[in-house]
Every structure is written in C-alpha cells, then in structure tokens.
Design brief:
36% of the residues lie in helices and 16% in strands. The protein is α/β, with parallel strands linked by helices. It has one domain (8-16, 34-282): Phosphatidylinositol (PI) phosphodiesterase (TIM Barrel, Alpha-Beta Barrel). Strands 1-2-5-6-7-8-9-10 form an eight-stranded parallel β-barrel, surrounded by six helices. Pfam families: GDPD.
Length: 285
C-alpha cells in the first residue's frame, strides 16, 4: 500500500483523501469499484446523450447507457404536487408549446407536455420523466449525477427517499448530488453524510475563487462543478490542493475535451459521451 501510494498521481491522491474523508472503507466483495472510487476520470452524460436525442428523455438516457457513460446527469425540479421530475429549464416556453414554470403544474399536466418535438420530428411525443421512472428503468447498475435545480418543496428529502427506495449505493459514488445552492447540499448532507456532493460554481465565483471559499466548500463537498471556460491549471491545482475534485461543464468540442484532460480535470459533463469516452480512454496521463 505504501509503495502504491507513492506512485499514484496527484488526482488519485485527491481521490484517496476524499474517500477517507467520506469514510468509505470497503466495497462489497466481488463488486467492481466505480471509476470515481479509483480516482479515474469520469464521463457524465449531460441530460443524457443530449446531442443525439432530446435532453432528459428516455431516448437520451438509453443512448447514454448504450455508450457506456459513467454517469447519467439529471436536472431535478419539483412539480406543483411535489413530484421530482427531470427537466433543466425552469420555464417551459423555450422547448414546448406550454407556458410558465414547471412548478406551476401538477404531474398529470406535466405528463401532457411534448419535450421531443423541438429536437426533431422523430422524437415527437417524448414525455418529461419523473426521477422515479428513471430509477425504475435503469436501476442499480447505473450511476446517477443529480442536480437539485430549485430547492423548494423539500426536494432534498424527497429525492433522498427515492434513493433509498431504489436501493442505490449512497457511499461509493453511485449517486452524486450537485447544486449551486450550498444550503441545499448541506440539507442533503444532514440526511446522509456519505453521498458525494459537488458544489456548482457560478462563472464569476469560479474566476475569483479564494482559498477561504475553497476551504469552506471542502468542509462539506467532494468537489466543484465549473464552467470549462473558467478552468485553468491554477484552478485545478488549487482545487486538488484542497482535496476537491473538478468536474467541468459542458464540454462538447473535441478540442476543449483535450484541453480539459490536459489540465487534469477529474470529469466532464458532455452531451456527447461517446466522443469523450473514446478520447479519455486513449488519453495518456
Ligand atoms: O450541472 C452542471 C451542468 O449540468 C451545467 O449546468 O445549466 O446544464 O444544468 P446546466
Ligand atoms: Ca445540470
């Protein structure tokens, strides 16, 4: 172990520290370790394989699974009647024939919305999914990277109860929770200290990150999610020196994927998980 520790890369050191912080001590015998447990780079399918199918639809998530993405990214919002659903925009106006905010509508109304038509005729009729439908479909052999978009209606407890109901492993990184809201992440932490949390940074905050702010984030989160435009070598080093993982969003161009890998980020959100996987598997660290 000592010799192994001496030759691991900086990224792996960060990960080992993280795992010890999270008090992960073992994996169930016979189960393969997740990439995140091994300190390896992860490919996060941003709203599914959303370059090829409308975001957050079953088609998009199925494609991401077929492409072997490490994580399915899901933006979660609550319906008027308190059901967590997968959708990014707060307003329906841009990509549907409906108007107004998600939270104005009950689930039975939400289910009437077509979220496929804007992407292409082939996808007409695609429906908004509940988080539960996604868990039911993909179960425990998938890893989930869940963003708490709005922090209303007790979303943290509702999502947490679903994680338990679907028997997801909450201590090995099978589920990662991300949010721009520190309060929301802290509420999740109060429900379960082991779930890895990622603090999303607004661009201006990422560009002006102080050591003090990083230390505050380190006290509760496993890493930061940051716009790739704000990622520099100094940023990555600063985060790693504070035992924080760096996950860059949202990277769809091969050139930028390469740049991010060179800078040593620990994962990327992408609409093209097939492209990123192929590149990252051939990348020499
Ligand atoms: O969750 C971070 C990443 O998904 C980028 O943000 O706006 O696409 O949810 P957004
Ligand atoms: Ca997101």
């Amino acid at each position: 172990m000592k010799e192994f520790t001496m030759v691991i890369t900086m990224k792996k050191k960060v990960m080992l520290l993280l795992l010890s912080f999270m008090t992960i001590t073992h994996v169930v015998s016979g189960e393969e370790k997740l990439k995140i447990e091994k300190g390896e780079f992860i490919t996060i399918a941003h709203r599914g394989a959303s370059a090829y199918a409308p975001e957050h639809t079953m088609q998009s998530y199925k494609l991401a699974k077929e492409m072997n993405a490490d994580y399915l990214e899901i933006d979660v919002q609550m319906t008027k009647d308190g059901v967590p659903i997968a959708y990014h925009d707060h307003k329906l106006d841009d990509k549907t024939d409906w108007k107004g905010e998600i939270e104005q509508y009950r689930l039975d109304e939400i289910k009437q919305i077509d979220i496929g038509k804007w992407f292409g005729e082939d996808f007409q009729g695609a429906k908004i999914l509940t988080l539960e439908e996604i868990f039911k479909r993909f179960g425990t052999d998938t890893n989930y990277y869940i963003e708490l978009k709005k922090t209303n209606k007790g979303v943290e407890k509702t999502v947490y109860d679903l994680l338990l109901k679907y028997d997801l492993n909450l201590s090995n990184g099978q589920v990662i929770i991300q949010s721009f809201s520190q309060d929301s992440l802290l509420r999740m932490k109060s429900l379960n200290v082991r779930i890895p949390l990622i603090k999303l940074l607004e661009d201006e905050n990422a560009l002006n990150l102080t050591e003090q702010k990083l230390k505050e984030i380190t006290s509760y989160a496993a890493g930061v999610g940051v716009n790739y435009k704000a990622v520099t070598k100094d940023f990555v080093d600063l985060a790693h020196n504070n035992n924080l993982l760096v996950h860059a969003y949202t990277v769809n161009q091969l050139k930028v994927m390469n740049e991010m890998l060179e800078l040593g980020v620990d994962g990327m959100f992408t609409n093209k998980p097939d492209v990123l996987l192929e590149l990252s598997l051939s990348f020499t660290y």
